[in-house]
Automatic annotation (TrEMBL):
Catalytic activity, EC: 4.1.1.20
Residues engaged in binding pyridoxal 5'-phosphate: 217, 258-261, 368
Domain (Orn/DAP/Arg decarboxylase 2 N-terminal) ranges: 28-265
Originating organism: Buchnera aphidicola subsp. Tuberolachnus salignus
Listed Gene3D superfamilies: Alanine racemase (3.20.20.10), Lyase, Ornithine Decarboxylase, Chain A, domain 1 (2.40.37.10)
Gene: lysA
UniProt binding sites for substrate: 261, 297, 301, 333, 368
Family annotation (PROSITE patterns): ODR_DC_2_1, ODR_DC_2_2
UniProt name for this protein: Diaminopimelate decarboxylase
Keyword Chaperone recorded: no
Cofactor: pyridoxal 5'-phosphate
Residue numbers carrying N6-(pyridoxal phosphate)lysine: 48
Active-site positions on this chain: 332 (proton donor)
Length: 410
């Protein structure tokens, strides 16, 4: 997929210009992914998956709307050109912090309410505010326990929607939509279950609303063995639910989806350098200059990412290896790994002819990559580069150590 930017000369150009490690995104893939979703009336990008404002601008120009889960994400959306006093931004959360509450009221940003407490907080200050309720469907699903967002083990959403409705009425809030998000990773059986739960809730509440949202969770084939989501199937299930609800409530309903990873995951790669290849007893370790401070998914979820190698320019001087190796980062922490199973055990990858100085490309990292990075081990945030119209553009420069320390200067 990322062939265009994977040519050796491009990798050499990028690593020479910006050094490693670095993120690269291909804008065209983002556009293609959004186009695949055009049947859905509203595509709302879950920006937590990839929040660089240059990416958000591309997404806005494709006609998508946006989800924000913090005041920082509201600011990002505004800077990227999404509008206030409109349906462009929806604020989704299980809590209000003082500042975010103030902001959504000031700009009349619709709120997707995740708790009864939020209803009270918003209702007291902003009657008639347009709101959604995020309903916990009482069961969940996710590619990992940590991404399961439904059921009693999930903190998300409102358990008792009738109670919520009573409170909404008490505070005179304007209910415009119902939302459910059970987690990430689509499975059709679960999808059917969610859409049926949505129908049941809509009928039970019996309120004229404008929108229903199927949430996010559309997966992408991280592994070669995995298949693309059948979007037609997904659409059919939800369109049917929409029609049923619309018929029952006797009002038109707009169907939204709220994907994150589906839109950006495949557009991004992480380019790092092999700094060391070492053998501890019988195990080989390939050690990169990028760790879980940059890409957290393998450590957090045991996620699989495809990994390829581009031979470095000084190959001839280094010893070459044909090995099965564990891939690790530079952090002072033994859990700093890229090859982990879902249950946390170590696995290896096969390498042919690799050497120190080679570039390692970690694929499909455009979602929950840069946006989840940290400064752990006091390593500065790494640059993000956008490939668009056959050109590379720096869309976030490397953080300097000075900048990192500046917050502590007093
Ligand atoms: C994270 C999240 C999404 C996006 O999930 P993906 O798996 O990236 O599609 C959508 N909606 C809500 C409420 C979320 O929390």
């Amino acid at each position: 997929m990322n062939n265009i930017i994977l040519k050796k000369k491009h990798v050499f150009f990028l690593t020479k210009t910006y050094k490693t490690p670095l993120w690269v995104y291909n804008a065209e893939i983002i556009r293609q992914q959004i186009l695949k979703l055009k049947k859905f009336q509203i595509v709302r990008f879950a920006q937590k998956s990839c929040s660089n404002i240059h990416i958000l601008k591309i997404i806005r120009k494709c006609g998508a709307k946006i989800d924000a889960v913090s005041i920082g994400e509201i600011e990002r959306a505004l800077i990227s050109g999404f509008k206030t006093y409109s349906n462009d931004i929806v604020f989704t959360s299980d809590i209000f912090e003082k500042k975010s509450l103030k902001k959504v009221i000031k700009y009349k940003i619709p709120v997707n309410l995740g708790s009864l407490h939020m209803i009270k907080q918003l209702g007291e200050k902003s009657p008639k505010h347009p709101v959604w309720i995020r309903i916990n469907p009482k069961f969940g699903h996710g590619h990992h326990i940590k991404t399961n967002t439904g059921g009693e083990n999930s903190k998300h959403g409102i358990w008792n929607s009738i109670k919520a409705l009573k409170l909404l009425k008490k505070y005179n809030l304007n209910l415009i939509g119902l939302h459910m998000h059970i987690g990430s990773g689509v499975d059709y059986l679960h999808l059917k279950k969610v859409s049926q739960a949505m129908i049941k809730e809509a009928i039970n509440l019996n309120q004229k609303i404008n929108f229903i949202s199927a949430g996010g969770g559309l997966t992408i084939p991280y592994h070669e063995k995995e298949q693309e989501v059948n979007l037609n199937n997904y659409y059919k299930i939800w369109n049917k639910a929409k029609k049923k609800i619309s018929n029952f409530l006797q009002c038109p309903i707009t169907l939204e989806i709220e994907p994150g990873r589906f839109i950006t995951a495949q557009s991004g790669i992480l380019i790092s350098k092999i700094c060391s290849i070492k053998k501890n007893q019988k195990k080989y370790f390939v050690i990169l200059d990028s760790g879980f401070n940059d890409l957290l998914r393998p450590v957090l979820y045991g996620s699989y990412h495809k990994i390829t190698v581009i031979p470095g320019p000084k190959h001839i001087f280094h010893k070459k290896y044909n090995i099965d190796a564990i891939i690790s980062g530079p952090l002072c922490e033994s859990g700093d790994l890229f090859t982990v199973t879902k249950t946390g055990s170590l696995i290896t990858r096969k390498f042919q002819n690799i050497a120190c100085g080679d570039y390692l490309i970690i694929h499909d990292t455009g979602a929950y990559g840069a946006s989840m990075s940290s400064n752990y081990n006091s390593r500065p945030l790494i640059p993000e580069i956008l490939y668009d119209h056959k050109k590379f553009k720096l869309i976030r420069r490397r953080q300097t150590i000075q900048e990192m320390l500046s917050l502590e200067n007093n």
